[in-house]
Amino acid sequence: MKILLFAMGILASTAVLHTSAQAQNYPWCAYYGGGANDGENCGFSTREQCMTTVSGIGGFCALNTQYVPPAGAAHPSHRPRHGSHKHPT
Within a domain: residue 10? Predict the structure, then answer.
C-alpha cells in the first residue's frame, strides 16, 4: 500500500510540475521513408544536416513550411552579397 501511495504521489507531483513542450523552430525537415505513416523530423538548421540524416535510411529533406525565423534574423537566402562584381556601364 505504501508503494502505491508513493507512486501516486510521484505521478501527482509530475502532473503539477509539468510544463508544455514547445515545437522546434528550424528551417529544414527530414521526411523518412515515403508512406503516410512514416516519420518526420523538423529539427535541422541546415540542408546538409538533414541530408546527412536521411542518407542511407531513405527519405528526403524539404524546407519547413512552419518555420518562423527569430526576430531580427535574416533568412540565409536574403543576405546581401558582398563582392567585387562590377555593373556594366
Answer: no
